[in-house]
Structure prediction request, 299 residues.
Amino acid sequence: MGWLTRTRALRFVYTPSTRSSGTTVMRGKQLADLVAASGLRHSTITFEPIDLRVRNSDLFLTKGAARTTSPDQVERLQRRGNRVFLDPVDEGIDEETVRAADGLAAASFSAYYDWSARWPTTKVVRVDHHVDPRLRKILQARTDLSAARRMMSIRYFGERENALMTPQIAEEVEFVQVDTHRQDDTWMSSVAGTDLHYAIRRARALDVHKPFLKGFTAAAAGANILVSRDEAEAHYWLPQNYPYWVGEGATEGVILSALEYARDTFNGPLWHDAHQVMREVSEQTRNEVIVREFIELVA
Prediction:
C-alpha cells in the first residue's frame, strides 16, 4: 500500500495551552503512537506544538489547534507545501476554516453526516475515538469474575458535573471522577471490576457531536452500559431492542427503575444478549479499525 512507503512527515499538532488535556493526549499523542505502530515506518510521525513555519507535512490539528487556527493560517500552511486536517471532536468549527482545510475528521457518526451535508466539497472521514491504551493494558491483565458475583457493580466514569446525578442515584451508582483537563489515570483501575457503566448525562449546549467513547470503553471492558435514548450517537451503535436504554428526558424515578431492572436481569439471558451487542461494538472499535479510518483521511 502506497501509504506505507510515503516520506512526507505526519505531524499531530496541538496548542501549548491544551497540551495536557484528555482530547489532545488521546487524539494527538496516543493516536500518533497507534498510527506509528501500524506499519507506517517510512514517515516521520511527531506530536508537537503547532508551528506555522513547517513545510511539506501532513498536519493533523487536534481539537484545541483546530479551534484556534484561522483560515488565513491554514492557507499559509498550505502555501508551504502542507496539507491541513482538522479534528474538532465534539466542538463546533468555523466554516471558513473548514472550507480552507484539506480534510475534516469526524469522531462520531452524527458529526460525519452533519458535516458531509454542510460541506459537500470538503473531505470528511469518520475517525472513531479509540479507547485509552493505558486502560486496554490494565484490562488485558484482569480476571473476569462477574459471572461468579451475586452483586452487580455500577459506576460512572467522567466529570461529575456532566452526569445526571441525584442523592438517590448516587446510592446505586459509584461516581468516579475523570478530570479531562489534566492527565489522571487513577480511575482506570476501577473499570475492570465494573459490570454496568452508567452514562446518563446532562445536556450541555457546548456538546455538539459527542463520540460514544463511554460505550467504547464499556465494550472494551466486557461490560454493559446504561444509556439514555437522548444520546444521539448511541443509536448508531446499539440496537433499539438493547435492554438497557433509559427513556428520553428520564426522571430520577425512571433512572432508578432502569437500574433496578439491570440488577434484576444481571447475568441472565437479557444481560448476555446485551453483552453480545457490546462485543460487536468492541470489535468495530479496535485500534486497527481506527487506524485504517485515519489512513483513509490522510491518503
Observations:
- DSSP finds eleven helices and eleven strands in the chain.
